[in-house]
Amino acid sequence: MLIKDILEKSYETKMDDIAKELPVGEKRVRDILKAIDCKPNGVGKKGWSYIGADPSVLDKDFTDFIPHTAVKTQKERKKKTSNNEIKEPLKPVKNDIMISEQPIKTEIIEPSKNEINQPSNVTRKRTSFDLDTNLLKQLKLRAVMEERNLYELVEEAIKEYLKK
To answer: Could you tell me which of 129, 150, 133 has the C-alpha nearest to residue 99?
Structure first.
């Protein structure tokens, strides 16, 4: 399709419909038109216009301006992977997860009945501090495995430390 044909069609047809006839998508069509000195006519106005100095550009085929790597055939654009296909077989999950050099056992510790859904009368104050990234990863993993919040684990560890 010639550039002048695309510009003429742009007054009657939306750019995404024009792009369906071309081997690239709507965004690429717009980008190429801008690169060859075309511009949209403005907000609320239909069509594109050529503002460049060389009118011979209008008689060139649009595909001449497409980088070779961007050209896709109609089949390639319509080709989609089926939801039923599995590209890679699922891998079994190991019982130990490695973070840095230390394995973490994936045992889930069940909280006692007294700890479950008990309202606490503890007043909390927000604070922030820096932790070693590997330690934080281990802490987050433990919190997920035990289905607890990070702050609960940190509070528990600090209480145990202060008891010593």
So the answer is: 133
Tokens of 90: 């699922």
Report pLDDT digits (tens) over 99-135.
555 555 555 555 555 555 555 677 888 888 898 999 9
The answer, as to whether pTM is greater than 0.85, is: no
Question: Could you read off the pLDDT of 69-109 as tens digits, one per residue?
Answer: 545 555 555 555 444 454 555 555 444 455 555 555 555 55
Q: How many angstroms separate the CA atoms of 131 and 158, rounded? A: 14
Distant-in-sequence contacts of 38-44, Cβ < 8 A, 24+ apart: 38/3, 38/7
CA 118 vs. chain centroid, Å, equals 39
> Could you state, in order of their start, the residue ranges of all structural domains in the chain?
3-78, 96-163
CB 58 within 8 A of CB 50: yes
- What ranges make up the beta strands (E) of 6-151? 38-40, 48-50, 96-99, 102-105
Alpha helices in 36-149 (DSSP H): 74-78, 133-145
**CB of 134 within 8 A of CB of 97?**
no
Which amino acid does the sequence have at 46?
K
